[in-house]
Amino acid sequence: MSLIVMKFGGSSVGDPERMKRVAKRISERKQEGHQCVVVVSAMGDTTDDLIDLTKQICTTTPPAREMDMLLSTGEQVSVALLSMAIHSLGCSAVSFTGWQAGMYTEDVHGKARITDIQPERILKALDNDKIVIVAGFQGMTGEGEITTLGRGGSDTTAVALAAAIKADVCEIFTDVDGVYSTDPRIVRVARKLNEISYDEMLELANLGAAVLHPRAVEYAKNYNVPLVVRSSFNHNEGTKVKEEAVMEQGLAVRGIAYDKNVARISILGVEEKVGQLAKVFTALAKEQIDVDIIVQSGVMNGAADFSFTVSLSDKDKALQVIEGIRSTVGFREVTSQENLVKVSIVGAGMVSTPGVAAKMFEVISELGLSINMVSTSEIKTSCVIDGSRLIEVIQALHTAYGLDTDSQVFVGGPSERR
Amino acid sequence: MSLIVMKFGGSSVGDPERMKRVAKRISERKQEGHQCVVVVSAMGDTTDDLIDLTKQICTTTPPAREMDMLLSTGEQVSVALLSMAIHSLGCSAVSFTGWQAGMYTEDVHGKARITDIQPERILKALDNDKIVIVAGFQGMTGEGEITTLGRGGSDTTAVALAAAIKADVCEIFTDVDGVYSTDPRIVRVARKLNEISYDEMLELANLGAAVLHPRAVEYAKNYNVPLVVRSSFNHNEGTKVKEEAVMEQGLAVRGIAYDKNVARISILGVEEKVGQLAKVFTALAKEQIDVDIIVQSGVMNGAADFSFTVSLSDKDKALQVIEGIRSTVGFREVTSQENLVKVSIVGAGMVSTPGVAAKMFEVISELGLSINMVSTSEIKTSCVIDGSRLIEVIQALHTAYGLDTDSQVFVGGPSERR
Q1: Which of B135-149, B176-190, B211-225, B372-386 has the highest mean pLDDT?
Q2: How far apart are CA B207 and CA B255, in angstroms?
Q3: B62, A70: Cβ pair inside 8 Å?
Q4: Which of A38, A103, A267, B375 is the most exposed place for a label (fewest CB within 10 A)?
Q5: Residues 6+ apart with CB under 8 A from B8
Q6: Residues 6+ apart with CB under 8 A from A267
Q7: Residue B9: helix, strand or coil by DSSP?
Q8: Which residues fall within 8 angstroms of residue A417, CB to CB, at 6 or more apart?
């Protein structure tokens, strides 16, 4: 008998038929003799529908606190219905909201972090032989305010819960068969990975692979929670995410990720004084703008150029911030560039295999593209390049690193949101 | 400055436009200098839509606990949206679920009674100059289980809250202008009452007038909460419900109610022994069947006949129960009758005005109808009659008791559900 946490995203429970299929799957697991805790997101379009309602009602930006009150109902509907569906199959289930499940978060709305889990009610229900259904994506502050965890929140709920109740495994059910060597919508011969390490998964998730949220992976790594990413539409084995993952056939690269949500900002002719860079990035951080790759070019005549990337949606705000500190920093010019893409190769084997990055640069050059920026870590190399030929680049890299398979991938419905 | 509780039903907030209108009304009240606590029901069809979903998912009756988890989301959506709408108008508001508002109930699902209110969060928010929006119809048990209060629950939430925070008045906003002398859909010259006493309102509500739920009226009477029933679509004065109400022009009858949800069951030839009746009604009570009027006819040859009314939906179950105790009670025959209606006249003046009931019997006889059963209290008389000529009967009684007015009544949208 194992203690299993199963997480189903919004598209897996998107309509009554899918809800019933998920209920069947859970009750089969229970009948195999396992204890099951299930985390579920809001049904399909629920969240969008609720947001639409606010747009019809509000002329100003709604308070984040009230937005959390509103959006958290989506998961509450899901858990109640899923519990009913399981009852209909003759199993006993009980649903909990975030606050009922003892999910405590910091006092921030829209993207709260979990601070503590008090799973007594869950454990008691498991002792009473019940399947426990927990609303993902939500929690409560110490003062009884309802919070939501933001994007990828249900993944995080599942992993954090698995850690808190010491589950044997946390299964993340989604609309694809597992984690792929790259986006199967772009590369039809993408390879489903049998295993991947937390670190590799973390890089892939951070670099744009939507299948798991980085925060959830981080949580899994920190608490050593074994994860399995698998399809809610079939019984294929999925991908195991764990501390040490076996590399197949000596491949150095596990996967290729890309991120189109990239803009480059260059500040040219910055006066060479101590602390100039710090001023820029402190000002950006104050406005909650995340900076990714930073590159400084050589100093000439007492002035330096440097470039960095931000997400596309932050670009205009970042330019404003920089203009605002022009007089205190002192620089000649600011430029920005869109239509870029960040392509990354990830693999724990890169450290011990010389020439992996070199091959990446070579493949990109052979396509006649120049590389704008480069960033590396022990297990990844990222290049920022012109975005217009993304598909060609990904396909060429996929082939060059020996990742192509013979079989074509079935790509399911819309990807999960929460 | 007054402390006001305002309650808006589901049709008053049925769509974004109505929601905005309600928000405007509330913020006007606030700007007049009052402290406002608002209780609101689920938007329009939300509850029905949720129930539809359960029908698509469940093949068995869903557990009542999960039904409460599900349905309570309807009010949570309403309070969040209404709070946002008020924010859009530049006022500060905060929404609370039942559990956040400190609404404690007994541990029963679908029709829990309020056991305690701990309004600290509400009072603190009022101190901070906020408009407080509370989800009607819901509460929490001491163990943190979400409960719903059943039909009329939002009325009860509003009145109970008004009592707990010692509000100066509890305004119940609905789709009609107030409490009428009878159903204005039947009698176009029905009279809007300026005042009515708790006791009269309680009788009318119990006897089928849907404008206020009996439980809410009872609560108001017990805690002496001044109520006003008024329209959410205009600023007309509405009806005051209070301890002592002035009777207009010496009328003895305040209002006429009817209830079509009536079935008669007769048990014939019951052996005359002590405790026979108790056996029957104990057995019915055990199955949660409410019995209304009970009539026993004379004893002949050591056997008695008696009749009672139950609600239509309980009829078949009641017949089963009686068959089940046939051997222990001993009787000759059971019969039942549908297509009946209970018509009632209500008025505190009946006690001091002779002949009021006699006039009722006379009016009904003059229409050529026989009276099947009669029941009386100090302030009401009810007759069970054939249901086919209900409208005629009500109109004739309304005229006979001098209740007709010259002005015709505008009848609004669908009546409130919660």
Answers
A1: B135-149
A2: 11
A3: no
A4: B375
A5: B22, B38, B39, B40, B41, B173, B232
A6: A280, A305, A306, A307, A322, A329, A331, A333, A334
A7: coil
A8: A9, A10, A11, A41, A47, A151
- Site of tokens 């399947």: A131
User: What does the alpha-carbon distance between residue B96 and residue B83 come to, in Å, rounded to a whole number?
Assistant: 10
Reading the block at residue A388, the tokens are 């217009």
Q: Which residues of A touch B94 (CB under 8 A)?
A: 65-66
Q: Do A73 and B70 touch (CB under 8 A)?
A: no
Q: Let me know: does A151 contact A112? Beta carbons within 8 Å.
A: no
Whether B131 has its CB under 8 Å from any CB of chain A: the answer is: no
Length of chain B counted residue by residue:
418
- Is a pLDDT exceeding 90 seen at residue A273? no
Classified as helix, coil or strand, A134 is strand
A93, A83 Cβ separation under 8 angstroms? yes
Nearest to B346 by CA among B373, B366, B375, B367: B375
* Of the candidate ranges A243-252, A261-270, A313-322, B397-406, the one whose mean pLDDT is the lowest: A243-252
Question: Which tokens belong to A207?
Answer: 């670099």
Beta bridge partners of residue B169, listed in sequence order: B4
Tokens, residue B290: 């409410």
Q: What distance separates the 2 farthest-apart alpha carbons in chain A? A: 79
The string of DSSP letters for B124-136 reads: HHHHTT-EEEEET
Side-by-side strand order, sheet with B103-105: B114-117, B103-105, B138-140, B146-148
As beta bridge partners, residue A299 has A304
Partner-chain contact A66 B84, CB within 8 Å:
yes
Query: Cβ(B96)–Cβ(B136) under 8 Å?
Result: no
Strands of the B371-377 sheet, one edge to the other: B255-259, B340-346, B380-386, B371-377
Residue whose token pair is 């009515």: B196
pLDDT of residue A103: 97
- Rounded to whole angstroms, the Cα distance separating B139 from B113 reads 9
Backbone angles phi, psi at B200, to 5 degrees: -65, -45
Contact B68, B139 (CB under 8 A): no
Number of neighbouring beta carbons within 10 Å of residue A208: 17
* C-alpha closest to that of A147 among A245, A24, A64: A64
Region at B330 (left for phi over 0; alpha for psi -120 to 50; beta for the rest): left
Contacts of A48 (CB under 8 A, 6+ apart): none
How far from A392 is each of A172, A191, A366, B8, CA to CA, in Å? 31, 17, 11, 59
In eight-state DSSP terms, residue A192 is: B
Residue B241 in contact with residue B227, Cβ under 8 Å? yes
Q: Residue A183: what residue type?
A: D
A24 and B CB contact within 8 Å: no
Q: How far apart are CA B74 and CA B50, in angstroms?
A: 8
A139 touches A99 (CB < 8 A): yes
> What is the distance between the alpha carbons of residues A281 and A261, in angstroms, rounded to a whole number?
20
Which pLDDT belongs to residue A17? 95
| B97: closest CA of chain A, how far (Å) | 9
Domains identified in chain A and CATH numbers: 3-245 (3.40.1160.10), 264-337 (3.30.70.260)
Q: Where are the alpha helices (DSSP H) in A185-301?
A: 198-206, 214-223, 276-286
User: Rounded to an integer, what distance in angstroms lies between the CA atom of residue A230 and that of residue B39?
Assistant: 44
pLDDT over 90 at B211, yes or no: no
The band of A58, judged by pLDDT with boundaries at 50, 70 and 90, is very high
Contact B81 A53 (CB under 8 A): yes
Q: Is B76 on the interface with A (CB under 8 A)?
A: yes
Pairing of β B169-174 and β B3-8: parallel
Say if CB B385 and CB B343 are below 8 A apart: yes
Q: Are B13 and B43 in contact (CB under 8 A)?
A: yes
- For residue range A90-139, list pLDDT tens digits in order: 999 999 999 999 999 999 999 899 999 999 999 999 999 999 999 999 99
